[in-house]
Each structure stands twice: as C-alpha cells, then as structure tokens.
Amino acid sequence: MDKGQGPLTTCVVTGAAGFVGSHLCERLLSLGHTVVGVDNFFSGRPENLKTFASHPRFFFHERSVTETGLLTALKDQHGPVFAVFHLAAIVSVPYSLERPEETFLVNTQATLLLLEEAEVLGVRNFVFAGSAAEYGDRDRMPLTEADANEETRWLSPYGEAKYRASVAVASRRGSLCGVSLRCFNIYGPRQDPSSPYSGVISRFVNMAVAQRPLTIFGDGLQTRDFVFVSDVVDAYCLAGLRDDKDDIKRTSGVFNVGSGRATSIVNLARLICRLTHRPESITFGPERPGDIRHSTANIEAITRVLQWKPRIGLKDGLTRTIQWMRGSG
Ligand code: UD2
C-alpha cells in the first residue's frame, strides 16, 4: 500500500497533540510533508509532541478550532494548504452528556465552519475524525456506513454531534474532497490510561504492567472492534494525500475504520495477561451504565474505495502497546 501518494504538501492537523493526531503528524513528516499542527491542549498533551516538536517542517499553534478565520491565518503564515486533517474535538462521552451545547459547538459547528473555510481557500482534501459512536446502539453486526442515519438513537451528544459533522463533510460538493473516517476502538502507544473512561486496552495494559488486577465492567462478553493506531494513520493518509481530481466524487464519503473482527473484553483481558507474562488476574465489577453490547465494523467500503486494510493484528498491536507502556511507565 502506498501511503505517500501525491506531491509533497502542506497539511494542517487539528488535534495534533492528541493520541491519533500526534501519530498522524509524525507519519506526515516522515513522508516529507510540511505539517501545521493545531491544539489547545484541552485533552491533547504536550508530551505527545515530544518526538517531532523541533522537526524543521513542523509548525505548532496553540489555538482552538472554534476561532474564526483559523485556516486563513494558517494559510497566510504557511502558504497554501493541501489537506486538512480535522481531529480536534471534545472526545469524552461523559463530558458531552454534561455539556451538550459545548459539544455541538466544538464537534459539529466548528467542523462546518472549518469545512467552508477550507473550500474557499482551495484545500484539496478534508478528512474528519468520525466515530463508531455515530451508530448509537444497534443489534445487527457488522455495522455498515448506512446504519447511522436520521433514525439513529444516539446514546450521547458526542455521537450525534460526530454524525452531523460526518454527514456534512461527506456530502461536500465541488472541488474539495470530504472524507469522514468512522473509527472504531483505536488503541496503541500514547493512549492515556489515566481516566475511568480511557480506552479499555490502555487501562488493561497499564494495570497488567503494574501487576494489578484487570477489572471488567459487566460479564466481559461484550465485544469491540479494535484497530491499531498506525492502521488508522494509514487510512488518514490514503484519504488526505490523494491528488486525483477525477476521483473526488468517488472518494468523498463516510468510511468505517476497524479491524472487522469482534473481540470480547474477557478474551482481551486474558490475552493481555498472557502477553505480559502474568497469571490471569481479572475481577468483575458492575456493568458500565450506557455501555453498548457489541460493535463491529464492516470495512468493505474503505477496502474497495481507498484500498485500505488493517495490517497490524491484535496480538502484534498489543505487544507494541505493552512495550511502550513499559518504556513510559
Ligand atoms: C468507545 C469510545 C467512546 C465512544 C464509544 C461509542 C474509546 C476509548 N471510547 O467506547 O469515546 O466513541 O466507543 O460507542 O474508544 N471496560 C472494562 N474495563 C475497563 C474499561 C472498559 O471492562 O477498565 C469495558 C467497557 O465497559 C466496554 C469495553 O470495555 O464494554 C470498551 O470500553 P471503552 O471505553 O474502551 O470503549 P467503548 O467502546 O465503550
């Protein structure tokens, strides 16, 4: 798979100091592109920028995506922008339940404004961080892109706000190619394990490395679709770096990004214990309120249109995450 297609460009990455955003910046720099990173450190962390902060082709702006004229200001300073990778968002589901208005303002409204600005400025590709939360709670798996629609009952303002923005990005007509990547459960190095709402893999790996028991919420038979962060970065690059003008209509759209496989939480816990060479030390607590039961992506569309497929299997991805956690702990 060629992830460096097209010319060397200037790319804007919002949410550059986040878990996925920082990996994306690193990859774009390694491919030779110039990267203008934006983050207001609401949930992003300065240490995520550490490995590339002083790179000669990396420029950082501590700003919010809700600022009017943000892209225009960046273009004035850094020249024409080829692609905008818009990952900055309120990422916490519980926070979105407490502050729905702010969530719509940041996750939907700011996206619409950035999108309009990008189009006016002649940006070629706009890639948005969608979410599996856009599907609400569905019975039938795997989920195909059309399963999120106006009939969906979202479980949080986060899910609805992401859905509204995804639809706007994907239905853009004109010279701008808009792609929303509906990512399932992303995991890997740099994912913060510190809150009860952190991704289950970062929490389990953190606990296992610290030789503490892993706590499963509920019976552990709920399933998720785990996708390694470098595979997600592959998808961003395939969507954002293409330069085939005839391809805009074909490529614009919403695409699931997952492994296409269901893993139960109890099997995940056992695998992590095995990979960290410790006896199974697993406890069961009450089910987490609002949890969905199952979530698996159908990845046929992204495989067909963007020629993307996941390359890192769960065992390999977990091993890399464990190595990172050991090194940073
Ligand atoms: C993911 C997203 C969330 C939202 C949601 C929409 C992450 C980190 N979270 O939540 O932002 O988009 O999807 O559907 O990607 N669990 C345990 N023990 C723990 C932690 C979690 O058993 O210590 C369980 C948890 O109850 C759930 C499963 O593991 O059943 C996955 O939890 P999660 O928070 O990693 O992800 P999810 O899919 O609930």
UniProtKB/TrEMBL annotation:
Residues covered by the NAD-dependent epimerase/dehydratase domain = 12-258
The record ties this protein, via SUPFAM superfamilies, to: NAD(P)-binding Rossmann-fold domains
InterPro entries according to UniProt: Epimerase_deHydtase, Lipid_A_modif_metabolic_enz, NAD(P)-bd_dom_sf
* PANTHER family registered for this protein in UniProt: BIFUNCTIONAL POLYMYXIN RESISTANCE PROTEIN ARNA (PTHR43245), UDP-D-APIOSE_UDP-D-XYLOSE SYNTHASE 2 (PTHR43245:SF13)
What is this protein identified as? UDP-glucose 4-epimerase
